[in-house]
Amino acid sequence: MKWDAVCLWRRRGLTLIETLVVVTLLAVIAVMATPSFVAWHLRDQVDARAKALASTLAYARSEALRRGTRVTVCRIDAARRCLAAGQACGEGVTDWSCGWAVLAERGGALSLLRAHPQLAAVSITGTQTNLTFTPPAGQLIGTFRSFDIAPRVLSKATQGDKWRRCIRIAAGGRARIVEGACGATS
Fold first, then answer.
1. Which stretches make up the General secretion pathway GspH domain (predicted)?
2. Which CATH topology does 16-179 take?
3. Which distant-in-sequence residues (6+ apart) come within 8 Å of 147 by Cβ?
C-alpha cells in the first residue's frame, strides 16, 4: 500500500522529456496542417467574393427595375470613385478585386447605393468597363459578360478548376456562378 502511494506521488506530473515530445508532435502536426488550412481559407475567400459580386449584380439589376433608372456597377478606388478602364486602383491592380460600387442615376448625377472594399488575395478578371443595367427589364447594356475569380497567387495547393469560379452575365442581366475558369477576357 505504501509502495503505491510513493509511485503515484512520483508520477504526478510529466517529465521534461515527455513534455518536449508532446510539444514537438504538436509542432509537426501544425506545420503539416498549415498549408491545407491556408488553401481552404483562400478557397473560402474565392467563394465569398464570387457570391458577393453575383449578389451585387442581382441587386443592381433589381434597383434598375425598382427605380426605373439606370444603375451602374463600377470598379472603385479607396476613395470609392469609379475607375476608368485599365486604371489601377493601387499597387498596380487593374482588375475588379479593387472593389466595386453600385451607383444609381438621380437627376443626372450618380449616387452611391452600395460598395464592396478591396480584397487583394483574390483576382477578379473580366470586362474593364462599367456594367449598366437599364429599365424597364433590367437588361445589361452590351453583350454577354463574364468574370473569372481565382486566388491572386497560385500555389501547388491552389491550382485547378476547383479553386476558380466563373460568373456569367446574360444580356438580360441575370448572373450565375459556375465552378471553374471561364476565360473572362472580354
1. 50-173
2. minor pseudopilin epsh fold (3.55.40)
3. 53, 96, 124, 125, 126, 127, 166, 167, 169, 182, 184
